[in-house]
Amino acid sequence: MGNASGLGDVDDCTCAVGARWCARADALFGVTGMHVLDVAGDERGWLLLTVETDQTVAGCPSCGVVATGHGRRVHRVHGAPCFVASTVLVWRKRVWRCPEPGCPIQTFSETHDLVAPRAKLTTRAVCWATDALTHDDTTVSALARHLGVDWHTLWDAVEVEATTPPATVARAGRADVTPPEAPPSAATEDAEQ
After folding, report:
1. CB neighbours of residue 118 within 10 Å
2. Confidence band of 161 (pLDDT split at 50, 70, 90)
3. How many CB atoms sit inside 10 A of residue 123's CB?
4. Which pLDDT does position 189 carry in this prediction?
5. pLDDT for residue 191
6. Nearest partner of 96 among 123, 125, 131, 67, judged by Cα
7. 24: confidence class by pLDDT, cuts 50, 70, 90
8. How many CB atoms lie within 10 A of CB 43?
9. What are the residues facing 75 on neighbouring strands?
10. What are the boundaries of each domain within the chain?
């Protein structure tokens, strides 16, 4: 049974010993298809969220044959700050194996809109930083410090976000954000007068 906010059934919490996922933690995380397995802090005061997807079947991207599970690998990626703490997602990314002998791809990793392949920042963190640079009086250095990353790591991601047309930007978990409109150019203003 869901609730009016669309966050799922937080009344039926599965945060019990032996339970796979916790509905309340998933509701706070708010990313469709990803679930929180563990929440911990580290010596720096950072929040570590161990997450995984609920994907149980995948087709080979090359030949389309249904793949079989081949274990998991950890992909650590920085997310938007949570409760004023730098947040690191520890994604237990599923690895798939193509059983088709003639297929050129033997193994491949699952994907999710929240984390681009080989990314260091989540799309949510990049949107958070881009929105802050657009609307707040802040710097890339200050935002990088909040995210727990180097200036160059953040700037590389923000530059791509800022120069990509809004319709093509993947904004996982950010359906509520609409990109700011560009201010009218002087030529447009002159033509309107």
Report:
1. 8
2. confident
3. 25
4. 45
5. 46
6. 67
7. confident
8. 5
9. 91
10. 33-174
Classify 59 as helix, strand or coil.
Answer: strand
One-letter identity of residue 123: T
The burial class, CB within 10 Å (0-12 / 13-18 / 19+), for 50 is: middle
Whether pLDDT at 25 is above 80 = yes
Q: What are phi and psi of 72, to 5 degrees?
A: -135, 155
Q: Which two tokens stand for residue 123?
A: 């799309």
In the three-class reduction of DSSP (H, G, I as helix; E, B as strand; rest coil), residue 88 is classed as strand
Ramachandran category for residue 58: left, alpha or beta (phi over 0 → left; psi -120 to 50 → alpha) = beta
pLDDT digits (tens, 9 = 90+) for 83-129: 889 999 999 999 999 999 999 999 999 999 999 999 999 999 999 99
Q: Average pLDDT, stretch 58-66?
A: 95
How buried is residue 110: exposed, middle or buried, by Cβ count under 10 Å (0-12/13-18/19+)? middle
Alpha helices in 3-122 (DSSP H): 23-29
Which of 152, 114, 153, 161 has its CA nearest to residue 133? Answer: 161
**CA angle, 105 then 61 then 169, to 5°:** 130
Closest CA to 95 of 52, 50, 65, 62: 52
